[in-house]
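FORM 7B: Structural annotation worksheet

SECTION A. Query
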Amino acid sequence: QVQLVESGGGLVQAGGSLRLSCVASGRTFSRYAMGWFRQAPGKEREFVAAISRSGGSTYYADSVKGRFIISRDNAKNTVYLQMNSLKPEDTAVYYCAAPPQSYSSSLLWKDTYSYWGQGTQVTVSS
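SECTION B. Predicted structure
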């Protein structure tokens, strides 16, 4: 089993920046692609960003392209989400997630993922 723990959420003003971290347990972190999702009250959980095992490929939702950057440090078992130019509509609980080592569906789909962190709250004031 893979255990994921997010941190770095908080309250920021519109236009500000925040950096989220997700630390994974285990000795095989580099074998997993990783993703970030978010969920606002009353809404479905939605895809934000994903990164391949080596970090060589990244994927972003249209709503965050040009503002958010996903990265990973396999030596530290950590994936990051750098969020810049934050908007009130970015307010949500942000979740780190990992798919199985061998997945056959898109990293953009939440059903692809098997492991989820507890979430960290991000609130952007206007």
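SECTION C. Observations
Residues 62 and 119 are 22 Å apart (CA to CA). The longest strand covers residues 18-24.

SECTION D. Sign-off
Analyst initials: ____
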